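To whoever picks this up:

The parser on our side crashed when reading a file containing two proteins. I've narrowed it down to the boundary between the first structure block and the second sequence. Both blocks are reproduced below exactly, byte for byte. First block:
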Amino acid sequence: MAKDTPPRWDRKMQQRLARGEAAALGELYDRFASLVHNTAHRVLDDDSAADQVTREVFGYVWENPDAYDPRREGSMRSWIAKLTRRQAVHRLRQAEAKAYAARGGGSTEELEQKVRRAAVSARADFIVQSMPAPLRAALELAYFQRRDYRQTAADLGVTEDEARRRLRLGLQLLSTANTRPLDGRAL
């Protein structure tokens, strides 16, 4: 399969959505609803707002299946996560702007910093959840259980070199969470 060819499931799902198959939307929802809701909740810290973003994202996907371009977006999962982050950040900006206006105004810079932190946090969560299980396990041991690379190697049953490699690669992936610019566009 060519490098820019999407996986079979993604390609078939896009075709089914384009034909208007309601069952395809249900399958897509079953597969990605928790990703969408959790990502939106991470940004917005509000269940009802996350529910609304979830409805908006799946509504957008249903109405615009041809907006998915696998060469630009990668997997459908990545595309849906990107749509979710974009819509959640848009909602956060709207909510914060209203709150600042209601308080008599505030620093636009403060608002942008809050939005940026929320977006980076959501992206980092997505990266961790998407990385291969061995990398995620090594990072979780090192970060949450405060293990060094020797202890991590022993806990995982791998060599110290392999533990260092996993930690380094996991951290490199996480470092990309803050490198993408926010574009501020809604869906």
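<<boundary where parser fails>>
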Amino acid sequence: MNSPAQKLPVIFLMGPTASGKTDLAIALRQHLPIELISVDSALVYRGMDIGSAKPSAQEQALAPHRLIDIRDPAEPYSVADFLADAEREIAAIHAQGRIPLLVGGTMLYFRALLDGLAEMPAANASVRAQIEREAEEFGWPHIHAQLAEVDPETAAEIHPNHSQRVSRALEVYRVSGKTMAQLRQLQHLPSAQQSFCERYNVCQLVIAPRDRSILHQRIASRYEKMLSSGLVDEVKSLHQRGDLHPDLPAIRAVGYRQVWDYLDGRLDYNEMTERGIIATRQLAKRQLTWLRGWSTTSNSELHWVFTETEHGISLTKEEIVRCALNFIGSAAI
């Protein structure tokens, strides 16, 4: 295996939603010859700017993000699509003599880069129909709870309302008798992980507050700001198109689904706001759970860039950047 100094560098910048990933990525670009690649399943969609916390025009002028605004909301974007796009952009950035920095909160995409994609059983229409009948009778949270009993690792990655992904994961178990997590392990996916890490010197950073209550405050403040900035009107434009529906991945995105339900009359404004904040907190919890278990699936050390000291004192932007730069330097990048 080549030494880190001989391999082309790649930086991952991960973290829960509302942790400050975009700000740090833009700041790092002032210090390093980096180009940014978005790792976010919502930012790929055009017309979904406010609710996805998409970098503003000003921010993108300072630091252009690749893989933003590359899909219409009616077109689902898969993990396989991301892998192909990300590998292409990484190669293009290296060809320019610069360093790719992949920034975002879609942990499944980061994991796919490191682990590869596992082969799963073919779709089984009868099993899927049975799961859908159960969901109609008991609700998708009940189906998600069934999945959590047999495959807690995969269930932690999927929101209970993501009906398509919940159904597929439970279908895989019922068809094969093995969970998605087990199938990944049985297929020796660490070899794919080594393939990525053999090609690249990967420095993995996580930005996060030490205290989850701080993150909760940021999430509530940000969602309320999104609403005051026109989130309802943004979703209304999507709602009025006529070709979009709540089962599409774009509309299931956290924040968007709640406003969609408000526009459909299923929630009042206060319920929409409360559920949007709760759903975002749940997303952050899943992201943090994934990251805390990252060391068992990653071939590289995870470096935590905390936004406060151990005594709860907020770090300045410069201090956060310096901490990240120290980790990047220690990785010989």
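After patching the parser it read the second block fine. The CA atoms of residues 12 and 204 lie 5 Å apart. The chain has two domains: 4-118+187-330, 125-184.
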